[in-house]
Q: What sequence folds into this?
């Protein structure tokens, strides 16, 4: 770019470089989806099509950004884990989060039109997503981060499932249902679902109870050969050797430790 006497204004710009050699998690979240879900008359408590729009949008983002090794989502949010040594945009925070939020929003509109074509988007209420980046210094923090999101999914889903059954099938007003649930434990909600509506919470779809996980897996990764966790050097060698990756979708429990120990490359 040619120099001009105006160029000094560039010195006012700011950058924030995310700490090197730390795990980066970027979470996108739908803006005002409480109203958005009302406006487009989402199924309560879970709208399968809307959740699939979220999932396809996340999967597409993973395809276009190879540094994403894992994604976890439920409701109107998705969290993306980047490789620890990720150098995308030189780890410039603003470039990362604006790219994630705009790409996710664009993907969401595309997949909405594709999967939900009976509900055309209204210019007054387009879906948009914010994004934040969080850096975590060690593996435990990252694991606890994803456990936190999955526990949140479970708590919200159990509450919402019970709440909407009381309203829709139990003919309660939303206020009455809210009052009935104040101070209840998980076991109380399970009992209401079973006794009043014949619903066994455990039988509900895994996607609703556990959210959705996408992993970039090494197809030929010989983890089964290792009785214990391979050493770091060994792991790096294995990762270099196994080149073939595939994005796989799960709705499983990531709170149990075997989820992580079976896939040591997620945190490498
Ligand atoms: P924000 O994120 O601060 O801009 O505000 P909201 O309204 O997006 O709040 P948030 O993200 O805490 O909550 C997500 C909302 O989206 C929540 O009100 C429930 C709604 N929602 C998400 N997925 C579904 C669904 O599958 N069915 C229904 N009925 N509602 C959903
Ligand atoms: Mg929020
Ligand atoms: Mg939201
Ligand atoms: Mg949310
Ligand atoms: Mg430019």
A:
């Amino acid at each position: 770019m040619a120099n001009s006497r105006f160029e000094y204004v560039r010195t006012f710009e700011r950058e924030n470089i995310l700490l090197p050699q730390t795990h980066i998690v970027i979470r996108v979240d739908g803006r005002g989806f409480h109203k958005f879900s009302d406006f487009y008359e989402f199924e309560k408590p879970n709208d399968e099509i809307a959740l699939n729009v979220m999932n396809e949008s996340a999967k597409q983002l993973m395809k276009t950004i190879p540094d994403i090794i894992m994604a976890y989502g439920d409701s109107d949010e998705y969290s993306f884990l980047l490789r620890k040594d990720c150098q995308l945009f030189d780890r410039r925070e603003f470039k990362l989060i604006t790219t994630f939020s705009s790409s996710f929003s664009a993907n969401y509109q595309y997949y909405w039109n594709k999967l939900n074509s009976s509900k055309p988007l209204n210019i007054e209420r387009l879906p948009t997503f914010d994004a934040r980046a969080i850096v975590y210094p060690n593996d435990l923090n990252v694991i606890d981060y994803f456990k936190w999101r999955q526990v949140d999914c479970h708590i919200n889903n159990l509450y919402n499932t019970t709440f909407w059954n009381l309203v829709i099938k139990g003919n309660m007003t939303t206020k009455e249902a809210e009052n009935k649930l104040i101070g209840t434990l998980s076991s109380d909600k399970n009992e209401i679902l079973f006794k009043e509506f014949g619903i066994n919470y455990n039988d509900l779809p895994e996607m609703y109870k556990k959210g959705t996980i996408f992993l970039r897996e090494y197809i030929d990764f010989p983890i089964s050969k290792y009785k214990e966790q391979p050493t770091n050097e060994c792991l790096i060698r294995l990762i270099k050797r196994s080149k073939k990756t595939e994005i796989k979708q799960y709705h499983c429990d990531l709170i149990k430790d075997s989820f992580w120990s079976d896939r040591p490359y997620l945190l490498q």
User: Anything to note?
Assistant: The domain at 16-150+205-267 is CATH 3.30.70.3000 (Alpha-Beta Plaits).
